[in-house]
Each structure stands twice: as C-alpha cells, then as structure tokens.
Design brief:
Layout: E1 2-6, H1 17-20, E2 27-28, E3 31-32, H2 33-42, E4 48-53, H3 57-63, E5 68-69, E6 72-78, H4 84-92, E7 100-104, E8 107-109, H5 113-122, E9 127-133, E10 141-142, E11 155-156, E12 167-175, H6 191-199, E13 206-210, E14 215-217, H7 221-232, E15 245-248, E16 251-253, E17 258-259, E18 264-266, E19 269-271, E20 276-277, E21 282-284, E22 287-288, E23 293-294, E24 299-301, E25 304-305, E26 310-311, E27 316-318, E28 321-322, E29 327-328, E30 333-335, E31 339-340, E32 345-346, E33 351-353, E34 356-357
Helix pairs in contact: 4-6
Amino acid sequence: MKAVLLVGGAGTRLRPLTLTTPKPLLPIANQAFLERQLSWLASHGIDEVILSLGYLPDVFVEHFPGGSYGGIRLRYAVEDHPLGTAGGIRFASEGITERFVVCNGDVLTALDLTAMIEFHDAHGAAATIYLSRVVDPSAFGVVPTRADGEVIGFIEKPPPGAAPTDWINAGTYVLEPSVLDRIPPRLEVSIERETFPRMVETRGALYAYASDTYWLDIGTCETYLEAHADALAGRLGQTPAPGAREVSPGLWTQGDVSIDSTARVEGTCLVGMGAGVGSGCVLADAVLGPRVEIGEGARIERSVLLEGARIGGASVVTDSVVGPDARLGSHVVVTDQTIVGASADLPPHTRISGGRVRPGPTAEAYRPIEVGKG
C-alpha cells in the first residue's frame, strides 16, 4: 500500500532551526521526525511513500541516499510552485490507481492506521479523515459528524466556547483514487478548505474516524519541546529513542558517552552518542544530541540540545532549543522557548528570553527572526 507524505512546508514557526533543516527532518529525541513517521507507516503495511516536497528538497534526498528507509521505498515529487495540500496530493499521487494514505509531515501520532483503513472499507467511503479530540478546538478546524461517522460540515477556528464539537481534523486521510478527480491539476488547492467541504454535498462519500490516541502537531517551539518530553515519558515507545538504554534511574544513553561522576540527573534525560557532560552539571528532563558538550557547572532543564552543540561553563538553558553545532559561551542564560540557530556563537554572559538567534556567526544574532504559520 502507498502513502503520500506532505513535507513541503517551510516550517516558519520553528525558525531558525528550519532555515537549515526542513521541519520533518528535525530530530525528536535524537531520531528524525520523518523516520518516526516512516516506521509508523511501515508497521501498518505501507511499503511505498511518495514525499511531496517543496522546501529544501535536496536535503531529503541526501538524508535517504538509498531511496528507502526501513523497508519502505521512497519516491520524491518536487513542486515547482506551491500547490496547497490538495494540489500537492494530486501532483504526488500521479499514477496511483488504488486506495492510499495521506499524512501531514508535522503530526506525531500513535493512530491505529490499520483500524482506520478497516473503518474506511466498512463504510464504503471515498475519503476518511482522522479526527483527534483537543481541549480547545478554537485554533483548529472542527469536524461535526453523524452518529455513523459521516461528515456533515467543517468549521474553521470557531470562537472559544462556540465549537459544536471538540474533534478536529488531525491530518491523516485514507483516499480512494476517485478523490483525485475532484482536484484540478497544477493548481493551488486546499483539501481541508476546498475539496473535503465540497465532498460533504455527496452523501456517503466522506467519513471521519475518531480516535483518542496520542496526537501532536510539532510545528511550534512549545510543541517541539513537548514531543521530546513525551518521548522521555515513554509515550512514543518503550525507549525514548532507538538504541537507548537506561544506565541508571532516569538516565538513558545511546552508545559511548562521558558523564562526570559529580553531574546530577533529575527526572528523565537522554544523552546521545559521543556527548560529554562536565563536573557539577545538572541535567533535568533534557535531551542531548550526539557530540554535545556541556561545560562545568552548567544546568540544562526541559531543553533540547541538537547534535554538536557546546554549552559553556556555568551556563543555563531552560525550556529552549539549541541548534546543531551552536556554541554558548560561559555564564550564558537562555530561557522561555528561545531557539538558537545552527552554528550560532553566543558570547559569555549573554542573556536571552524567548528569542530567536540566527544561524551562523552571530553579528546579526539579535535581529528578529520571522515566525509565521507554516
């Protein structure tokens, strides 16, 4: 069975990380998010995936040099201009003549896809939408249904307290090839705002499969950090990451690491291959990527340090993300969902709260980073 993964977005809400790495290739607990998605799809019988690409397409090809991952064959469909979600699906699915699955490239889920496909078949649907329940649906598109799951409408971002349901479109679809005939080729079309709402007019065509299973949109700094916390808490699997082992209560490591005997671990932490943690350090619910170095007396709390990051002595990183190969001098403090870009270099005694630090040499580090809706 085939799947189309929509991974062409620019990931503007996670800038500056996504200025150098596409959002689907950012790691979740030291494994690329896209690899997690592909493993999930493979576990439900998907053997071929078409990646619908637009932003930084060459990076995806470089990441999967053999054109496959975990037994899944990969194909690439690169848009030369934005086509929207429906247009992207139509473009990427050229040649598909059987039922297929579509997934958004920023959704982390434990959905029982096999059960969803069985539901789709049992109802004879042309399309089935996965619905997830959220506490506050006002930031999403809600999908009211009949008792049997048939969709009766779409309401985009209802005012707080006014939503007729708290079940939202969760970004995974099962589609028959007939749905493609509803999408004009080579035009920018939204499947959520155009194709699906028009399908409601045809009785029995569009159904929704509701599930309370784990679901998270990783598109913001807050939810990106939340995904790591969920991995540490075991919500994404029995171990936080492939190859990780618990060497002491709450401390998971991958391969050879160097952790000083005076360092302290609080909560649950993951330390990647080749990382080093200096004397007197405190790690609290933190994820350290491969080759990360933590200087003497530093504190890393509820934060993610990506591959090759270096943290100077007595520095503090709280509720933040430090990009790959970035360097923080001594006595630096970054807090409140700060994101430090790749290879940035912060001088000693810098303090940043809720900021965005540009990649590379930091002469321009404190210029605002554009953060959008992608």
